Amino acid sequence: xxxxxxxxxxxxLSGRYENRTKRPKRHFxxxxxxxxxxxxxxxxxxxxxxxxxxxxxxxxxxxxxEPYTREEVFDExxxxxxxxxxxxxxxxxxxxxxxxxxxxDEKRYDDEVVARLRAEYDKLQQRxxxxxxxxxxxxxxxxFFDRKxxxxxxxxxxxxxxxxxxxxxxxTYFDEGVQLLELAQKAGEMFRTQPSNQKRRLLGFVLSxxxxxxxxxxxxxxxxxxxxxxxxxEFSQRKRSGEPETAISEIWLPDLGSNQGPNx
Length: 264
Ligand SMILES: [Zn+2]
Known about the structure:
Elements: H1 3-14, H2 16-20, E1 34-36, E2 43-48, E3 52-57, E4 69-70, H3 71-83, H4 89-136, H5 142-193, H6 196-206, E5 207-213, E6 216-221, H7 225-240, H8 248-252
Parallel strand pairs: 1-5
Antiparallel strand pairs: 2-3, 3-4, 5-6
Helix pairs in contact: 1-5, 3-5, 4-5, 5-6
Zinc ion binds next to loops.
């Protein structure tokens, strides 16, 4: 998962978005987010009797048969679409277990790499110390000492940088998975209770291609929620058939392993 995506997940979960933006409250939550399924035009909103919000096809391509629709109808249907990302508790527990197992594998690997790098760092330090004694005893000259010790110190710095990268990658790997699951679990409920600005943000983040036709809303889940939604059923089936919790993160979080750089 790329950095930007993860930052958004965290913002949405923590409600930070609310504090950061000073946009005025919109009257019409769904303006520009839903298209008419008959003609592809945007739905536009209008206020009636000062309190009822109705949406209708802009009719930009001619007269459209789709009737006017109250905003509450969209509220309900969109909450249901987002609620489709929710696992039941048993499946959630199993998926989290799978993620943790995968995390443990990654962690073992990272721990090995880190141990090797620490040993390398210590070996370099021993060389520098030994060479210092040689310098004091006059067996090597100062220029040689300076040059070699600068080389080895720079190698040590590389060791430290790579160690840090492995430690961060490992924590990130697990946090990302857990937070994405959390967002998927809560999306429907959050949507029902959030103010207009945040509803728009959540929709834009999770869904694309919302269309309205014949009183039915259809939408596509964005990545990685599309994979998650697609696999909710598969997870349930696998769990029922007693399959082990292996390699599940590769199915719905395909990018999580990719923070392994060429230095690993
Ligand atoms: Zn239309």
